[in-house]
């Protein structure tokens, strides 16, 4: 086993120590992007409207009882951040916000462009306040182009990318998203990569800039475009979803088994032979019509009915273990519960327990990647609404306590 | 002086193959890094063999999908089966800041290019490894394909029609996502190196990176013990209705409609002409609509079915409703939004053909991305071996002749 060396030489500070970030986002894309900064050591301040950002109302809540301090979505995307409230729609609030902007290196936001215009917080305006600011804007459609004026959410962005039409759902039936905020997550990661590079090279390039992420465009280009656009442009034809993992080679799809589902993949000769062996060398599998992955695909219906007869008698764990040992890339389709209790992830210390004042001790997903010299990942809970108002407005904006109290009375914070 | 890009001066040796690794290189190259992808004619990367080919002529330098996904990477050719080639790779790495690989645990060691070896050659080198399930642990050698890797995260169990079993996602969403995520990890590691002088070996388990996407369903499990399953296009947290795609006029035409606020609901009703059925008790509040989401979706589907998807999206947007057409691949090239943002661009390849690839998938106001065509195998050999390593003409020719550089 190849254990990472002990981080005795680690400096203790995270890799992004010293970088100052404002998270002015709601729900998933901008908050998750900012979490990637906070989990690797940046100083991230979350700025919420006085009523709290939308994730606080989205849940999931323990026992389904809505409570602004008990939203699971807010918790998981806002670890390691401090939190303030600020009503940027009133002049006093906007002024407070500009004070924070002068402090910040990076602003991460996912408001619709028209909303930012309404608040007088366009990049052109922010650039005057802080020319060194890197502004990462993550929206469904982006800052330019005809749909930049549109209202939109994760769902609209994902289905505008071509991904669902091409890759997910049965032919003729409704195209599907993943069952999570896929476009938001994809956009968040693109924003983090390009935005962090803009921050890293800020002095080299001569100052700050706006990093404009359209969640729809990022997926349309880097996922769908990469594999399809050349053919569409050159030959004027394109493919649609088939409902099968790989229509041209087989077996390559999800099939039911005794206790759920497995990803049944045995394309190359060695893999197919491994699968045959695990299945007990059944006679049907020796038929010529199943000789290679292409003819198997042509006879897929018959083949899958044979395979499913066998999988129906075995559990996903059994099938995965035996097939992997026989050299096949067959895996269990783990449920959320199974993934959350995988011994492999426990052995890697992936999960981390975090004490939250309102939720109690929560087992959280850990760092997305391991950096032995500068460990990352969540260590502190998400902030309560306005938790750090006094601390931040007095230290960073030098406001006296009386002024902060007055702002609170007038519901600016 | 021309505008500098944020990662100018950073050199990356990219041993990545297929999709995720090359996308790390592409993203860093868009941002100004000099990325040298190491590959060989001895064993041509399968991505280079994917049809269709430019002008219909097969060849490892003509795969269109390969070009789109790899554009930005440079290419040096080294047959790593040969010891001398591995030594040259190591020498290149001494002139680099970072190394990327997505082979799987142990392979770099077998090439004698493991992290300890790299660190001896260059003290502060950053090695970014992107194995399926990490560099260690019981599943370290798990075999997956890009499109099935998501099954290890719980994500695949969420995809499908409401009440049914999981439906496979037919390509590896995880690959470009992990590639872009990996580019972030590399810049984070570069930042740490600048702060402290330390390099490191980043263990990017694609499983753990992609699993972040199931966070919302994971929290429902942690807080309530509920195990989510497929639910078509409903809101991941069940807090919005309507929230789906609806059939429109024409073959396989659909529109996405998501309503989260009362104002949007009112807008939808106005756009529909305040139909009689809306007044039913079951649609009177957001909570009631969520509780009767199937009935609501059925009503909406009746209304959208005879309409044109684009015209309907425009109408709904005028009323403030989040609605957009569901595009197919053919639409991407014709769509006015993508055209305006130059999402897809036609470029002239050095081999003399024109091809359409994607350009900067993120727009930077000060430092627009540098967009290049897909690399030809070995296109940067002269620069890498003669200029960077300073090999003599004679030595270089000899290495080419003996297919070390190949």
Description of the structure:
- The complex is a heterodimer of chains A (413) and B (406).
- The relative contact order of chain A is 0.14.
- Chain A folds into two domains: 20-223 and 350-409, Crotonobetainyl-coa:carnitine coa-transferase, domain 1 (Rossmann fold); 252-339, formyl-coa transferase, domain 3 (2-Layer Sandwich), CATH 3.30.1540.
- Chain A has a six-stranded parallel β-sheet with strand order 3-2-1-4-5-6, with helices on both faces. Chain A has a three-stranded antiparallel β-sheet with strand order 7-8-9, covered by helices on one side.
- Chain A contains 19 helices and eleven strands.
- Chain A has 413 residues and is an alpha/beta fold.
- In chain A, helix 1 (29-39) packs across helix 9, helix 7 packs parallel to helix 11 (215-235) and helix 9 (182-200) packs across helix 11 (215-235).
- In chain B, strand 2, helix 2 and strand 3 form a beta-alpha-beta unit.
- The two termini of chain B are 37 Å apart.
- Chain B is of the alpha/beta class.
- The mean pLDDT of chain B is 96.
- Chain B has 16 helices and twelve strands.
- Chain B has two domains: 11-204 and 340-401, Rossmann fold, CATH 3.40.50; 243-247 and 254-325, formyl-coa transferase, domain 3 (2-Layer Sandwich), CATH 3.30.1540.
- A six-stranded parallel β-sheet of chain B has the order 3-2-1-4-5-6, with helices on both faces. Chain B has a three-stranded antiparallel β-sheet with strand order 7-8-9. Chain B has a two-stranded antiparallel sheet with strand order 10-11.
- Classes of the chains: A alpha/beta (413), B alpha/beta (406).
Number of strands of chain A: 11
* Apparent shape of chain A: elongated
Give the CA-CA distance, first to last residue of chain B.
Answer: 37 Å
What is the first-to-last residue Cα distance of chain A?
A: 52 Å
The total count of helices of chain A amounts to: 19
| Count of β-strands of chain B | 12
Largest interface, with counts of residues having CB < 8 Å to the other chain, equals: A-B, 172 and 157 residues
- Biggest sheet of chain B: strands, sense, closure? 6 strands, parallel
Query: Per CATH, which architecture of the largest domain in chain B?
Result: 3-Layer(aba) Sandwich
Name the poorly predicted regions of chain A.
Answer: 1-11
Number of helices of chain B: 16
| CATH class descriptor name of the largest domain in chain B | Alpha Beta
For this structure, what is the CATH homologous superfamily of the largest domain in chain B? Crotonobetainyl-coa:carnitine coa-transferase, domain 1
Structural domains of chain B: how many: 2
Biggest pleated sheet of chain A: 6 strands, parallel
Number of domains of chain A: 2
